[in-house]
Design brief:
The complex is a heterodimer.
Chain A lengths: L10 H11 L3 H13 L2 H9 L4 H20 L9 H22 L3 H5 L3 H4 L4 H12 L3 H10 L2 H11 L4 H8 L4 H21 L1
Helix pairs in contact in A: 1-2, 3-4, 4-5, 10-12, 11-12
Chain B lengths: L7 H9 L5 H13 L1 H36 L5 H33 L5 H12 L12 H10 L3 H14 L4 H13 L3 H9 L11 H12 L4 H14 L5 H10 L1
Helix pairs in contact in B: 1-3, 2-3, 5-10, 6-7, 7-8, 8-9, 9-10, 10-11, 11-12
Classes of the chains: A mainly alpha, B mainly alpha.
Chain lengths: 198, 251
Amino acid sequence: MNLFNKPTVSSDEREIIDSIAQNGAERKKGEERLFNRYAYFIKEAVYKYSLPQEDAFDLYSDTIISAIEKIASGSFQGRSSLKTWLYSIFHNKYVDLLRKKTTNKNSINQTLSISDLLLEISDHSKSIVQKLVDKTDWEVLRERLVQVGENCRQMLLLWADGYGDKDIAALMEYKTPDVVKTTRLRCLEKLKQLYRKT
Amino acid sequence: MIEDMQNYLEYIDAYFQRTLDPAEIKEFEQKIAQDKEFADEVAFYLSAKQSLKAEADKEKKEWFKELLAQERPVIDINQYRSAKKAWIYRASAAAAVIIFVFLAWSIFFSKTASPHQMAESYIDENFKTLSVKMGEKDSLQEGLRLYNEGQYNSSLQQFESMVQRDTGNYLLNNYIGIVYPKLGNYDKALYYFRQFEDDTLYSNPSQFNQALTLLKRNLPGDKEKAKELLQQVVDRDLEGKEIAQKWLDKW
């Protein structure tokens, strides 16, 4: 954006944003369009940043996932074009990647950080919960997810991906959001029982 | 409240779905501190959600891989290079035609336009109003609205109060740089544009906007400095590259 070309979101970009923000069946189509539209960033990362293709793909995929989360939660305010905003995420992730490579941090711990969710809890309670979360056996939890059954797994994945009960009801053809909520909590309880058996 | 709940999970879910009232939220957080079993349940809920999110992201990445394979071939450096070569030949042919047309046009019609005039007409065409988002009423939008109404001093005050709280915001520095020339202060405009010239933005307009301001100011030495900046815009593939190239060709 230069000062004479206003920082507006184009109509095409607006369509993509709106379909992702709907969070229903349209979201997947929006995600696909978003990914395809800027996939040339991968080439840029290969040539500009001299990254191996696999890393460039991961970098771009992480950027798109992060952008989808922000658009779905309404954090993207459209003050710059979608492309400019996306590229700033992409560049920041590249800087993180470099930092991670130089400090050799454990990527799994990074991925499983729950800091965003803990933001909602007050400080004192947060430290208590954080200590308990730190004891989680992530590998076992991941394995148990396979054992809850495909329907449960699908529902829980949609929930974790930011879909509300109403959206899940539409996508998985449940009668009402309340039925989804009951089923989802039952699935979560099942996962807990399986995890704690170990 | 807790007694009404069939189990802790429903209660915890209600907390994170933000459906509890303030008193219930307080009670929930106190319970974490007082009840170890409950704290364990909260920790499980969060761990499960995060683990599921990681799994969902993993599946999404697999899907992205499929999309990439469908839409475009996987990037192979040699393939890319040969494709690039073919593209260069085609682009060169197209560029030759464009350059011929452009040269003919510039010889017959625009030979007399000075860099100062080019900048003037560009600013007149593109700089009359700035885009305001309909329905949004935040401070930024208010500053833009004031600008569009010609209230440049008020607009400037609005942006400057915002930039004091957010010094690194290139967008605000950019807008302030836009307003100052309207008040005849080109030095200040240049100062604000320079604030983000080293930012690694994908489309950094700093150099291009500095060049425009210098051409508009038109003091001794400004034209040469503007030319250098426009050359940087072209060499570094910055925002405004195409226009900068056009102007350099006409210089």
